[in-house]
Every structure is written in C-alpha cells, then in structure tokens.
Amino acid sequence: MASLAEFDRYMAHLCEGLGHADRHRSLLDYCGGLMLPIGRKSVEPLAAQADPTRVAAKHQSLHHFVANSGWSDQVLFERVRSWVEPHLGIERGAFWIIDDTGHAKCGKHSVGVTRQYCGQLGKRDNCQVAVSLSLASAEGSLPLDYELYVPKEWADDAKRRRAAGIPRTLRFATKPQMALEQIRRAHARGVPPGIVLADADYGRDTALRDGVAALGLEYAVAVRPDVTVWAPGSAPLPPAPYSGRGVVPKRLRRAPGHTPVPVKHLARQLKASQWRTVIWRDGTNARLSSRFARVRVAVAYQDHLRTALRDEEWLLIEWPRGEAAPTKYFLSNLPADISFRTLVNAVKMRWRIEHDYHELKQEFGLSHYEGRGWRGFHHHATLCVAAYGFLTAQRLQRSSKKNCARPQASLLPESYKPRGSRSHAAPCAGLDPNVTLFDRHTNCAAP
Fold it and tell me: Is residue 437 scored above 70 in pLDDT?
C-alpha cells in the first residue's frame, strides 16, 4: 500500500532537480493536486485544493512556478526516469516510442496553436501538438521527453515568438526531425537502448530511420502503403560503364525490369504459405492476434542518387482475415534471424504510448493548462509526467490492486467554483493515501 512517506521520498527526489528551495512547496502542491480526483487541473483549481482559505495567493504562487520559474524540464524528466526506470524491467526488453499528441485550443495567441490535425479530436482543428519520446517495457512505460511542435508560421513570426517566450535558438523543425533530436538526446544521456517504435507519420521518414540506425539503435516502425522497396530477387542496375570521358558514373540505375514496387503491391504478390496467424499478447477479453507476412527487402528511397543499395531489412505486413487489403506495413532493422513472433511483438508495443496519453489527459490534466507561454506549456506537461511517474512506479511495484485508494480532495468553501470544472470528476485510480496530500508538512517543502 502506497504511503504518504513514499510520496514524500519521491517529492524529495524530484526537488533535488529544482534548484532553489523556495520551489519545493510549489512542486508538492502542483503534483499532489494533479493526482487528486478533481475535474479541472489548471492552475486555479490546483491552488484551491492546496490552500482553500487563500486561493488567490496560492494561485499567484503556483502560476509563477509553472509559467515563469526557470527550472529545467529536462532535469526533472531525468529525476522522474531515475525513480521509475528500475521498476520497468527493461532488462527483459526495452522500447523507445515516438509519438505526438494534440491539445484542442481556442484562439490564436497560445504558443504554437494553429489549425492542424488533432488526434484528440480526430480531425483538423485549432490545436497545439507536442512530440514525445517514451521508454517502455512489457510492464509499463514513461515519457522521457515532451516538446511543443512550432508550426512554420509561428517559427517565422518574430512578434508572436517574443510574446509567447519561444527561445531565440529554436528553429523550425518537422515532427520527425524533432523526434530524431529527442532520440539523440536520450542516447547522449545514457538512457538504456531500446527498439525505436513509431507510427507511419514518423516511420515513413527515411532520414529518421537512417538517423536511428546511425546511433546503433534498432527500429520497428510503421510505414505507408506507397513506400517503395526492392523485392527479393530484384535490384537496380549498377552504374553505367565508363565511356572514357567526363566523370566516372557511380550511381545506381533504374530501367524496365529493374524498378522498385510499393509495399502494397508486394503484399499481394506473396504466396499463401507466407502468411501466418500470430498472437502477440492477452487483451482485456481475448488474446490479440492477426495474420502477418514478412519478407526481406531493401528500401528504394532515392537510390538512383546512391552508389550502393541500402541494407536489407524486414518488411512486416498485417492483413487481418476478412479485410479486403492489408491494413498495416512495418519496416525493421532487427536481426535477420529474429523470430516471427518477436518481430510482431515489437511492432505491437506502441499501444503503451496510447495508454500513457489516455491517463495523462484523463486523470492528470495534461491538456488543462490555460496559459499561453512556451515555458508554462512545457512546465505543466513535465509536472503531469512527474505525477504520473509516481503512479507508474507504484503500479509496477505492486502486482495487486487490493486496498488501492487515492488522495482525497480538500473541502472547499461552498461559494468556490473552479473555472471549467465538471460536475462529476473522473477518479485518479491507483493512488492510496486516505488523507489529503496538502494537509501536512514534507521534508521537501521549503520552510
């Protein structure tokens, strides 16, 4: 059963990455509030829970802590990782999961907001989008990095940048470029290496795959049906013979009979004997399985500008029974002798990040920040991950959910109504202290 003392130890561990001692109380108040079963988890409702009798003063304090205070998001992420990682069981298999998530947002002044695809809404709309990298195992997962995507119209607008506090050094980068930079940072920090997983929006980017491979990392990423490859037994022509004049030809050539094919066409050319039904894990109500085929291919992207064919890798294709066409395609540089089931298990581990985002948004208020600035957006997200990290560690340490409860919200004055609060708040499951986290002193809080 998780104890208040254990939460105190966790908070003290995080406080070591904050710098000034006067930030410690705010960290406890903010993270503790994020774990409470309240409907809205923006600054004002958190302040009301932390100090119901002095909401305005506490609101000012927490707002400064999240919107203006100069502590490092990267340092706090590292403190969270060092606490949770020993419980993940990554020695039995580790994964680095790339993804992004959208936050619906009204108006045009909040940092990075524009009309773009929002996964939360399932369509294009006004929103902010953040790119993340998570460390995962079969037992659990945790975000390692989280950064706002800055659209080009924002990156090129000096006035909007200044108003939102976007760092001067930041330059426009595509989401795959941002993801690769996050992977490089994690590699430089010594995060235990894992198989890099990503959906097709990232996996189709050849520069991302090449960058991951250049770091000595393995990947198993989704790609789109139109990605072209050299099927077994096919290849480009070698460089043209030297004529004796000019530059010696070095580039590969394409010609009739020597052209690559889209993976969607290759899938239909495979024999029935190459398809297998594979079970990858137990779901809530049944075992999860589908029909797959795999084949060794070489990606054909811009090979007419290359002097040698790319290395062979696995193309994994999912074609569920009853579907008119294959539904998913994956490329992986995992070893040629890897088992069929292990390859399928790897590509299917992406469900972990979907679980993380669901809980971070539904129970920890990841999308609830109401400020407009760059620093506040990232600080709020980091604190949500910090609160989630405590819950993740608790779950990993306990196989039974017996006696699990959660911190209790403070009793507020009847006249107080938090802005945006729902009438029925969703509980934050899995936490178990039976008294408010705020109604006490802690070894982390500043005097």
Answer: no
